[in-house]
């Protein structure tokens, strides 16, 4: 069984370009909202807000409430448990990445909220705090699915994971608008910001994550060979106590 290792950042230049440009675009939208008061896409938000939502009961409401809680303190508690699990499996570099990504996305959301200063819908159905744009819940879900992709999903299964990741993010976006806690464009901006900031953390910490991957693959390789079988490792010690050492 292959050891679980972090995935490398995409080689496509487009991925890095989007990770840099998307936060700037969201910040630009926030400045526009601040200066204009009513954004030009308010008509779309009003139309969507009138379409969604319903009685504060039933399966859809309970699902929205579950996602509401997961996007708050209970979700952070689950993240803390996941970080502890990474530390216990000697994957402290992945733990650093997970914490850095969550912290960076939270800071980015808070800063943009302060810039945009956008009120929430008047018919909000739950208790909320801070400003509307962008959605912190959508940003946290987007950050979460990228972190999972980097740290826990084997590279050969990433194509299967990404549709699941999109579904979970859209589900959170729908839950926030279903409860009228956010405008539709708040959730779009939140998801985009969460994804892009986490991708930037992934790129910035690539040397750290690459080191973890190399070490774990080396430990799994037969003594005397490196992870790709080229023979670059050497044995240190005797018998069952021998270990592989990276030159």
Report on the structure:
It is a single chain. This protein has 247 residues and is an all-alpha fold. It is 65% helix and 2% strand. Strands 1-2 form a two-stranded antiparallel ribbon. β1 (234-236) and β2 form a beta hairpin. α5 packs antiparallel against α8 (184-204). The longest helix has 25 residues, at 92-116. Residues 92-202 form the Phosphatidic acid phosphatase type 2/haloperoxidase domain. InterPro entries: PAP2/HPO, PAP2/HPO_sf. This is Membrane-associated phospholipid phosphatase. The chain crosses the membrane at residues 70-88, 95-112, 132-153, 160-178, 190-209.
Into which percentage range does the β-strand content fall?
A: under 5%
Tell how many strands the DSSP assignment holds. 2
Class computed from helices, strands and strand pairing: mainly alpha
Give, in order, the helices and strands. Answer: HHHHHHHHHEE
Order of strands across the biggest sheet?
1-2
Give the overall shape, derived from the CA principal axes.
Answer: globular
Tell me the Rg in angstroms.
Answer: 21 Å
Distance between the termini: 24 Å
**What portion of residues is helical?**
55-70%
Give the uncertain stretches in residue-range form: 225-247
Count of discrete domains: 1
Main sheet summary: 2 strands, antiparallel
- Helix tally? 9
Average pLDDT for all residues:
86
Organism: Glycomyces artemisiae
Keywords: Membrane, Transmembrane, Transmembrane helix
Transmembrane segments: 70-88, 95-112, 132-153, 160-178, 190-209
Pfam family, one: PAP2
């Amino acid at each position: 069984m292959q050891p679980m290792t972090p995935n490398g950042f995409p080689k496509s230049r487009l991925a890095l370009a989007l990770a840099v440009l998307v936060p700037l675009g969201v910040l630009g939208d926030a400045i526009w909202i601040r200066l204009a008061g009513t954004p030009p896409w308010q008509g779309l938000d009003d139309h969507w807000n009138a379409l969604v939502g319903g009685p504060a009961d039933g399966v859809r409401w309970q699902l929205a409430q579950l996602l509401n809680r997961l996007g708050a303190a209970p979700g952070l508690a689950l993240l803390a448990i996941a970080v502890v699990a990474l530390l216990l499996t000697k994957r402290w570099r992945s733990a650093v990445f997970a914490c850095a990504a969550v912290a960076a996305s939270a800071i980015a959301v808070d800063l943009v909220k302060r810039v945009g200063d956008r009120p929430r819908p008047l018919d909000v159905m739950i208790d909320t705090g801070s400003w509307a744009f962008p959605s912190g819940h959508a940003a946290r879900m987007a950050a979460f699915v990228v972190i999972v992709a980097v740290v826990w999903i084997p590279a050969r299964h990433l194509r299967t994971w990404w549709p699941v990741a999109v579904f979970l993010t859209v589900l959170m976006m729908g839950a926030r608008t279903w409860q009228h806690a956010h405008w539709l464009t708040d959730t779009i901006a939140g998801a985009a910001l969460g994804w892009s900031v986490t991708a930037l953390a992934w790129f910035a910490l690539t040397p750290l994550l690459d080191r973890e991957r190399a070490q774990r693959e080396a430990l799994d390789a037969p003594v005397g060979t490196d992870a790709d079988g080229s023979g670059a490792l050497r044995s240190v010690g005797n018998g069952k106590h021998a270990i592989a050492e990276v030159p």
